[in-house]
Amino acid sequence: ARIAALGATHIWLLPIHPIGVKNRKLSEASLGCPYAIRDYRTVNPEYGSLGDFKRLIEMAHEHNLRVLIDCVYNHTSPDSVLAKEHPDWFHRNDKGEIATRFSEWWDVVDLAYYIDGDQRNEPLWEYLLESLMYWIGLGVDGFRCDVASVVPIDFWMEARQAIRSKFPERSTLWLAESTGPSMIRSCRRMGIAMASETQLHQAFELCYQYNIFKVLHRCIKGLEETTTLLDVLRLEEASEQPECMKLRFVDNHDQPRIYDIARSTESANAWLSFMAFIRGAFLVHHGTESFEDRQSSLFDREPVVWNGYPNTELTMQLCALKKLPQIKKGSQMFLSASPAVCIVRVLDDASTVFGVFDVEGKSKGQQEVRGVPDGSYKNLIGEGDIEISGGFMSLENLKYSAAIFECSAANEPLVEMQSKFE
User: Fold this and answer.
1) With pLDDT > 90 as the criterion, what percentage of the chain qualifies?
2) Confidence band (pLDDT; 50, 70, 90) for 29?
3) In whole angstroms, what is the distance from residue 329 CA to residue 323 CA?
4) How far apart are CA 140 and CA 129, in angstroms?
5) CA of residue 149 relative to chain centroid, distance
6) What pLDDT is recorded for position 28?
7) What is the mean pLDDT of the chain?
8) How many other C-beta atoms lie within 10 A of the C-beta of residue 415?
9) Of 28, 245, 275, 325, which is most buried with the most CB atoms under 10 A?
């Protein structure tokens, strides 16, 4: 109920399956990595029973929440059911041993979708497709697909079509953990096929934003000019089909927390608001509601210290923001990067939302908001009104170092800032 009250529409659960023991990272006494899966068709008893999982889905649906589970189809644990019963379904190294192709992932072994290079491993494909059907049949609403780029795109396309055919009444969400440019290039140099985001969007509604993530983090830390990120975002938008959507986030279970790496809490709030405002879906990493600053551990139990959820207001307001038609469907223009980032989302000529983000967290000076008629505007995040006078607004006293407000129509043509790529 609390998550639904935030305004979330989906819950994404990290892998729910039993974790392998063999070759566990850290030590065999650790909980192990949940991405080293032992059995795709059962629930980890440390989390509860299958009945508990079904009740979770039922309760989520009662609160109009859809449930995504992690789909980890590049690899299993070395002691998985499949490794024991079907060792011929796995990649083998030069010694003839089932193995991973990635040296840093020594706690897993890779599945082999093709035999002798181009012959489909049909029994494996059938087993994996049946496993997806099983979870959809239990009420799961979608999948976040781990390192989706390294699994053949043909498999994902076939999986999506098979589920659509068997469950035509269901709307299944497909989220790809697409990889960043450096990993794609290095894997291709090693002879490992890696799908680009353009290819992944043939099967997935959403892809990760790892194409921009390193630049984003450098900006958050104050190591890169914000204009670089805005240029990369414009390049991204121009080079992709309009229907290709990104999952926007400032952190996730694999990355440091925004409230750890940002220059201040004020700067972190501004960046969080910025990511909710721009084009794409918005991920709220658990713990954001409590200013959690510890990076998630995949290997040990690490409860979030909730402290009464002190960041609930901002989280709720950003979730509500994503439901505005201008934010869901409107175009975006980057008007300035300093002293604050100014962006406008336009659905039509009479429906405009301005966003001003003091990402440096200084809360000083004036910000030009060209095109906004003088007057008072309700701030959609935080409290109070935004006063515009002579085309400027004050950056002081912004509760979350950001201002988002609706304007019926600009009073002059909006001019986008110059990009170094154009």
Assistant:
1) 81
2) low
3) 10
4) 14
5) 15
6) 59
7) 93
8) 10
9) 275
Phi, psi (degrees; rounded to nearest 5) at 408: -60, -40
Coil/strand/helix, residue 161: helix
List 141, 177, 197, 289, catalytic entry: 177
Contact of 72 with 146, CB cutoff 8 Å: yes
Distance separating alpha carbons of residues 266 and 283, to the nearest angstrom: 19
Amino acid identity, position 29? A
Q: Report the alpha-carbon distance of residue 407 to residue 319 in Å, rounded.
A: 20
Please give the share of the chain, as a percent, with pLDDT higher than 70: 98
Strands 75-76 and 109-110: antiparallel
Residues in the chain: 422
Task: Give yes or no: 177 in active site.
Answer: yes
C-alpha dihedral sign at 359, 372, 343, 8: positive
Q: Is 146 a catalytic residue?
A: yes
Cβ–Cβ under 8 Å, residues 174 and 145? yes
Structure tokens at 282: 């918005």
Comparing CA positions, the residue from 387, 381, 386 lying closest to residue 399 is 381
Alpha-carbon distance of 45 to 156, in angstroms, equals 29
pLDDT tens for 153-176 read 999 999 999 999 999 999 999 999
Supply the angle between the helices 312-321 and 265-277 in degrees, to the nearest 10: 20
What are the tokens at 336? 């300035």
- Per DSSP, what are the bridge partners of residue 68? 12, 142
Type of residue numbered 199: Q
Please tell me the predicted confidence (pLDDT) of residue 100. 96
pLDDT tier, 349 (very low <50, low <70, confident <90, very high otherwise): low
pTM value is: 0.95
CB 36 within 8 A of CB 20: yes
Closest C-alpha to 334, from 222, 396, 421, 220: 421
Active-site choice (107, 141, 146, 292):
146
Closest CA to 142 of 34, 70, 219: 70
End-to-end CA distance of the chain: 47
